[in-house]
Specification:
Blueprint lengths: L5 H9 L8 E4 L6 H10 L4 E5 L3 H13 L6 E4 L6 H4 L8 E7 L14 H14 E11 L6 H13 L6 E7 L9 E7 L2
Parallel strand pairs: 1-2, 1-4, 2-3, 4-5
Antiparallel strand pairs: 5-7, 6-7
Helix pairs in contact: 5-6
The structure holds S-adenosylmethionine.
Length: 191
């Protein structure tokens, strides 16, 4: 059963692209669940770069990765994802297979530290620069918290303006979720 949880659904789509040896980016590592998933998929020949602005998130993610006894296939940056183009080694520019964004605040932590419209959109632009043709950006959007609605609108507007001949955008949402419908956006670079 995957369709009772929108993030399980997202993982199934990501598995279409992820394979051993890939380079992947977790743009919002948070508690580290997505980072561990990505590192397991890319294996010892691949690499995962993770970003978060909160030291607690970086520490928790590091601990989870250590617990999983993964190969030395990950690097965490305690900096905003808007800096990804500066810190990802140039040899991987245009070769990244997957970029994952899980927006909003870190569950169980300070709810005032949130991803923000302007830096998220900036990071999305850079993600498309870093992405390989055939690569995928997956964005999970949770609005309903202060600042969340503005980010939801900005991200969806940005995605709607992308050139159809270069990037295909597919949106899914859990429509009947009480409160805000969690949204997923998948951006596939085709050229
Ligand atoms: C919803 S949580 C991510 C959950 C995570 N994917 C997981 O599996 O647990 C969002 C995270 O984005 C982080 N964040 C906020 N602004 C950011 C930025 N500019 N760059 C990178 N991370 C940011 C927050 O600190 C928070 O940990």
């Amino acid at each position: 059963m995957i369709l009772n949880n929108i993030l399980s659904y997202a993982k199934c789509v990501l598995l279409e692209v992820l394979e051993p040896g890939c380079v992947a980016i977790d743009a919002t590592v948070g508690n580290g669940y997505d980072t561990v998933f990505l590192a397991q998929q890319v294996g010892s020949e691949g690499h995962v770069y993770g970003f978060d602005i909160q030291p607690e998130a970086i520490e928790q993610t590091r601990e989870k990765l250590d617990e999983e006894c993964l190969p030395d296939n990950w690097t965490l940056f305690q900096t905003g994802h808007e800096n990804m183009l500066k810190v990802i080694p140039p040899e991987f520019h245009g070769k990244v297979s997957v970029v994952v964004f899980n927006l909003g605040f870190l569950p169980g932590s300070d709810k005032s530290v949130i991803t923000k419209a302007s830096t998220t959109v900036e990071a999305l632009r850079y993600s498309l620069d870093l992405l390989a043709v055939g690569g995928l950006v997956c964005i999970a959007i949770y609005a309903g918290h202060p600042g969340g609605d503005e980010e939801d609108v900005a991200v969806r507007h940005f995605c709607s303006t992308l050139d159809y001949h270069s990037v295909r955008v597919i949106q899914s949402e859990m429509t009947n979720k009480p409160g805000y419908p969690i949204r997923l956006l998948f951006l596939t670079k085709i050229k």
